[in-house]
Design brief:
- With about 240 residues, this protein is α/β, with parallel strands linked by helices.
- Helices cover about 40% and strands about 10% of the residues.
- The strands form 2 sheets. A 4-stranded parallel β-sheet has the order 3-4-5-6, with helices on one face. It has a two-stranded antiparallel ribbon with strand order 1-2.
- Strand 5, helix 6 and strand 6 form a beta-alpha-beta unit.
- Helix 5 crosses helix 8.
């Protein structure tokens, strides 16, 4: 991360503004972007003996590297295994969740068969995929039009049921049933925290490595569902991870 305030104090002086203007740089603050990208910049500074040029080095203003963020967005799918490697430890996985057994008289196996046969996923399938990849958070999207998804009591109830099924498969509470124009905060990775968090993270990583191998191995053996029954079987295998 760039210490912008320290660099700015050297860049916005009158002497440097005039110097940068002579070089065709209309906005001296653009030099901050160059420093952020790891480029050295030359400025003019005033000292006791007059003006002189000075080279600013990125290392003088950049702190330790900050971990980036990984967001994985999946479209229509009934088998996400080919994306497992790309989704490994993603900060956020956005997974479709078209069909779900939201009523007491609905059979989850029938819903899974219907969803997989049409190339779609259920909450359990989305949650299982996120868990197998070691994702930190899961956002569910692409719900069937039969779910209202509005602010009515029934709409909220249905979305709560769908999110709850995904949480159970995911093994975490960080699941949200997304809505149009919703904003989902994805924080930068920071320090690991206390020893307990680091120990838990190590255990999670070991579990993810085991499941990732199985996830990718099964994906490599199959090119795609050949019929509805085959799709349902594959979806059931994925949901069992």
């Amino acid at each position: 991360k760039l210490d912008a305030s320290a660099a700015r104090d050297l860049i916005v002086t009158d002497a440097n503004k005039s110097y940068q203007a002579s070089l065709g740089v209309r906005n001296p603050l653009s030099l901050l972007g160059r420093l952020q990208r790891g480029e050295s910049v030359v400025i003019m500074e005033e000292g006791g003996g007059g003006s002189r040029t000075r080279t600013l080095l990125p290392a003088d203003f950049l702190g330790p590297p900050r971990p980036g963020r990984t967001v994985v967005v999946l479209g229509d799918t009934c088998d996400s295994r080919h994306m497992a490697a790309h989704s490994y430890r993603a900060d956020l996985v956005v997974h479709e969740c078209t069909n779900a057994a939201t009523e007491a008289d609905e059979d989850e196996t029938d819903v899974l068969t219907t969803a997989a046969g049409r190339g779609h996923s259920t909450p359990a399938m989305a949650g299982s995929f996120a868990r197998a990849c070691g994702a930190r958070r899961l956002a569910l999207t692409h719900f069937s039009s039969r779910y209202k998804g509005d602010d009515s009591e029934d709409g909220r109830r249905v979305m709560d049921v769908i999110a709850g099924q995904a949480r159970e498969a995911f093994g975490k509470d960080d699941v949200v049933a997304a809505r149009d124009l919703m904003e989902v905060h994805v924080p930068f990775g920071g320090k690991e925290g206390d020893k307990r968090k680091r120990r838990r993270r190590k255990d999670e990583e070991e579990a993810v490595e085991k499941e990732k191998g199985r996830f990718q191995g099964e994906a490599a053996e199959e090119d795609g569902p050949k019929d509805e029954a085959d799709a349902a079987r594959r979806a059931a295998d994925a949901a069992d991870l």
